[in-house]
Amino acid sequence: MKINGKLLLSTGILTTSLAALSTSANALEKPQTMEDMWKIIQAQQKQIDEMKSAMPVAPENTTATGDVKKLERKTDVLSQEVEKLRTNLAIPEEAKYKSAYGLGPAASKVYQVGKGLSIGGYGEANYQAITDDKGSSKNNADLERLVLYTGYKFTDRILFNSELEFEHAKTGAEEKGEVSVEFAALDFFIDPIANVRAGMVLMPMGFINQIHEPPFYFGNNRPEVERRIIPSTWREIGVGLFGQITPDLTYTAYIVNGLNAADFSSSGIRDGRQGGSQATAEDFGHVVRMDYTPGYLPGVSVGGSAYVGNSGQDQAFGGQKVDVFTQLYEGHIQWKYRGLEFRTLGSWGHIDDADVLSAAGGETIGSENYGWYTEVGYDVLPLLMPATTQYLAPFFRYEQFDTIASAPAGYSDDETKDRQIYQFGLQYKPIPNVVIKADYRNFTAKKGDVPDDFNLGFGFIF
Question: What 8-state DSSP symbol labels residue 192?
């Protein structure tokens, strides 16, 4: 009886202590980092072990044995509560969509987790109606993209991030769809001023190339200047640095496998992208970008980028080996103020040895190209319903571009490549990560006819 009395006393103390621990665990604020979580686990387990070691040994089939089993069950309950804390930390209850390190908001989710796996994505579909009989284009409906972001945060300093894209719903011998890796890279965080990224990287040029998720640009179609002059989505295998020089000034700089001039055409350098698929790397490209967001001008950002590198890749063009030194530059301004969104971007490029490429390819390849656009939209719903969280913005965009702004000596210009686009439409977001779009585009060319189109579609991120 004496031993059992001590045992029951110890049991009572342990039961009370475990109950207090469980209450404490529930009352604690959710840990902010994985390190905080493990500190809580270690402290609780230490206290439980000390209490169990203080218990005297009791014979089998006693009241004390039953009490010990109850205590073990309570320990299991406490462990489950701790596991809930761990899961809630790794998978946030509410995703915060915020762009980070030059990537779109959904692509940036991995930077928000404490440790482990992150999953996100986006998708978009649209219907396009050709509004006249010019050309051979037909009305069409398309699940244009379905994208999965997967990332893994190994430590606070090392993470992996990737984008896998399914285009046009399906693939096959007679299908137009494709599955591709848009980017896949390791980030190594060393210092706010200088961090390393290696793998298949998005080229840091323009607005759309890095942030191309549908809720974050106007219209069902990406700006043509950022498709034909800046060939988005443009990605290559490379390595480089990114960081903050000051809180307002950021930069990105990569060395990547160069473009392949064998695929340049009168429509520009777009097909010269190698996309990391057994890319020829006899020549390399160098790209750098800087952005400035002055604190004294909220919502304003200005920046620019430059790409230079040979594109000949040690190939013969009509029997000649040439370097095909390729240059592309762009500058951009963005202003977001209350419901107002304004963007403008201009780009200019130059291709050496364009005459040799034109002779080998049988078409005029421009030695110079250029394009620019400006757009403005305004969210009108707060004017009608001040407390609303929904979004409705009419917008307008004007584009002008020419992939043969200057033809090489001895070759004629193709004036069908000199185009203007007037576009206007509506953008509606019932919630921030879902968008419904409608727009009309009027095309004009210096020579020839280009059909107009009406587009209706939707997009989402998660």
Answer: T
CB-based contacts of 24, cutoff 8 Å, min separation 6: none
Integer Cα distance of 124 and 458 in angstroms = 6
Q: Cα dist. 28→24, 32, 40, 179 in Å?
A: 6, 11, 10, 46
Q: How far apart are CA 373 and CA 345, in angstroms?
A: 6
Concatenated DSSP letters for 248-269? TEEEEEEEEEPP-GGG-BTTBS
Task: Return the ∠ at Cα 224 (arms to 264 and 226), rounded to 5°.
Answer: 75
- Tabulate helix, strand, coil % of the chain (nearest 5): 25, 45, 35
Identity of residue 197: R
Please name the residue ranges forming H helices in 362-457. Answer: 381-384
- Evaluate whether the domain defined by 106-461 bears CATH number 2.40.160.10: yes
Condensed to tens digits (0 to 9), the pLDDT of residues 245-304 reads: 999 999 999 999 999 999 999 999 999 999 999 999 999 999 999 999 999 999 999 999
| Residue listed under structure tokens 């606070």 | 156
Where are the domains positioned within the chain? 2-90, 106-461
The string of DSSP letters for 134-187 reads SSS---EEEEEEEEEEEEEE-SSSEEEEEEEEEESS--STT---EEEEEEEEEE
Instruction: Classify residue 90 by burial, with Cβ atoms within 10 Å: 0-12, 13-18, 19+.
Output: middle
Q: How far apart are CA 322 and CA 313, in angstroms?
A: 9
- pTM for this predicted structure: 0.79
